[in-house]
Amino acid sequence: MADQDENSNAVVQSLTRHINCLGEDNRNTRKNALISIRKEVFDRKAPLSSRELESVSIEVLKPLLKSFSDPVEKCRELSIDIVSCFLKSVPTVESKLSYVVPILVQRLGQQEIVEPSEEIRSLLVCLLHFIVEKAGKTIGVYVDDCVQILQRTLVDPFPETPSVRKAVTRVVGGWLLDLPDRYSYHHKLIPLLLTSLSDEQTDIREMADELWHDIGLKYERENEDDLKDKLDFVSPQPGHYPPNCNFNIQNFVLNSNTWSVLILAAVCLSIATCLRFCLD
């Protein structure tokens, strides 16, 4: 263990000059510094252990996250790649969430998306997906931030960016299938997936349709007793339904539950507004 600490400390010391160069005005200096950081940490002949990488990440994560806002796209791409490598290599990401998630919100979750590059937006969405999967239940406190990012990127204001919408659709569908305590977030996630069902891109619509179908089947398996009566007495599909319409009772119940929550929230908000008005 002492040898591991000594090794990680030596790596951190070797990175100090490169980290300092991330604040230089010259774009090539910053880019070369990021290339050197990646090489010295992840391209070593004797790879660092996960424990050593954890120690190194504690020292370099903040300056690397600051480079997510670098004016040069290549520098942003390199910094995202390095942070992704760290997060994939360390034992857990829980201690990193308070640093990483706010940066993702800053780049993608504002009223107007700050990140101008389609490729970088797609990389950030993929990074978010990975973080949520690895964090598991510990992501709970940050779910609202994650949903905010997905809401903004799904309605991407940049016209040439179907790849970002596709990545978001894949993430939302994955969460609705596998996110711990996902039922608590149905009312936030389901409307996002339903938006993709009417996307102008055929491949995105088809992906959303397949995910929606799988989500309904999984919901049926997990709620078989509650759905039994509904499944036994399902009416034939109405004749006015469009061809190839992927309707099933499971998704109907999911929709009903979701919109019930949304409508109740709207009613409560209206009542609260009226009460404040009356009290004033």
In the CATH hierarchy, the architecture of the largest domain is: Alpha Horseshoe
**Rg result:** 23 Å
Number of domains: 2
Structural class: mainly alpha
Protein architecture, described:
The chain is built from twelve helices and no strands. The relative contact order is 0.06. The chain is an all-alpha fold. The radius of gyration is 23 Å and the shape is globular. Helix 1 packs antiparallel against helix 2 and helix 2 (27-42) runs parallel beside helix 4 (73-89). It folds into two domains: 7-90, Leucine-rich Repeat Variant (Alpha Horseshoe), CATH 1.25.10; 92-225 and 245-280, Leucine-rich Repeat Variant (Alpha Horseshoe). The termini are far apart. Helix content is 72%, strand content 0%. The model is unreliable at 249-255 and 258-279 (pLDDT under 50). The chain has helices at residues 2-21, 27-42, 50-66, 73-89, 97-108, 118-135, 143-154, 162-178, 186-196, 202-222, 224-232, 249-279. Residues 21-160 form the Dynein axonemal assembly factor 5 TPR repeats domain. This is Dynein, axonemal, assembly factor 5. One of its GO terms (biological process) is outer dynein arm assembly. One of its GO terms (molecular function) is dynein intermediate chain binding. InterPro entries: ARM-like (IPR011989), ARM-type_fold (IPR016024), DAAF5 (IPR052623), TPR_DAAF5 (IPR057978).
